[in-house]
Design brief:
With about 230 residues, the protein is mostly helical. Helices cover about 75% and strands about 0% of the residues. The chain has a two-stranded antiparallel sheet. The chain is globular.
């Protein structure tokens, strides 16, 4: 156990934890998007309410959800730790030394991007997760949906109400834009940490990373835009 703890405190261990937690969150985004796209099913919220009911009452999903929160916390902690360590270890350049080729903007500002995403996540959790758990939400009557014999919360109405606000839609879209820039560097960085960044798969990882960083946030952002326009 002491060896593991020592490794996780080392520079390599911290980078590995960042990579592994980051990849888990990347996979989670795909699953979360698949569920959220049901908001656009055009069935008055039935598909999304079924999805929400399943997510809230499946033991495996609830375990993964708790792991997701834990990994978010770990990702934030290790990112702060690495940022502070890197800043402390960065040498001061000698006067007149040739400047290095500048790295991409997203890679130089991962701390700022991560902080903005964390702020967005807090707003997002307050608007949805907190409301689902502790808010006064209308219920869908039992047997309204075939196969569901108990009352379930009308999660769709909570989301639709939030997306009726142009300010919230704007905050969400900006949040997804920031997420896209964060993923643009984070996706490739995670694989590089695992030793695949310089392999024969380098170009494939780079292309998939760019597509992912554009497509996933764009689809997330599309949902509130479409719902807002439908109800405008």
């Amino acid at each position: 156990m002491n060896n593991i703890a020592t490794f996780l405190r080392s520079s390599i261990g911290r980078k590995l934890m960042m990579a592994l937690t980051g990849l888990f969150l990347i996979l989670f985004l795909v699953v979360h998007l698949a569920g959220n796209l049901q908001l656009l099913a055009g069935d008055g919220g039935e598909a999304f309410n079924r999805y929400s009911y399943f997510m809230a009452n499946n033991g495996l999903i609830q375990t993964v959800s708790k792991l997701n929160f834990a990994f978010i916390v770990l990702h934030v902690i290790y990112s702060i730790w690495l940022t502070r360590s890197n800043a402390a270890a960065r040498p001061v350049q000698y006067a007149g030394k040739a400047e290095k080729v500048p790295s991409p903007w997203s890679s130089r500002n991962m701390g700022i991007l991560g902080t903005l995403i964390l702020l967005f996540l807090i707003v997002h959790l307050k608007s949805f997760w907190f409301e689902f758990k502790f808010g006064q939400i209308d219920m869908v009557p039992a047997n309204t949906y075939e196969g569901i014999a108990v009352e379930i919360i009308d999660a769709y109405k909570v989301v639709a109400t939030a997306y009726a606000s142009p300010w919230y839609v704007l905050i969400y879209v900006v949040g997804m834009l920031v997420l896209g820039f964060h993923l643009l560097h984070g996706f490739q960085s995670a694989f590089q940490t695992l030793g695949l960044g310089f392999s024969k798969y380098k170009n494939i990882i780079r292309i998939v990373g760019v597509i992912y960083a554009i497509a996933i946030p764009a689809l997330f952002a599309l949902i509130p835009i479409v719902m807002y326009l439908q109800n405008a």
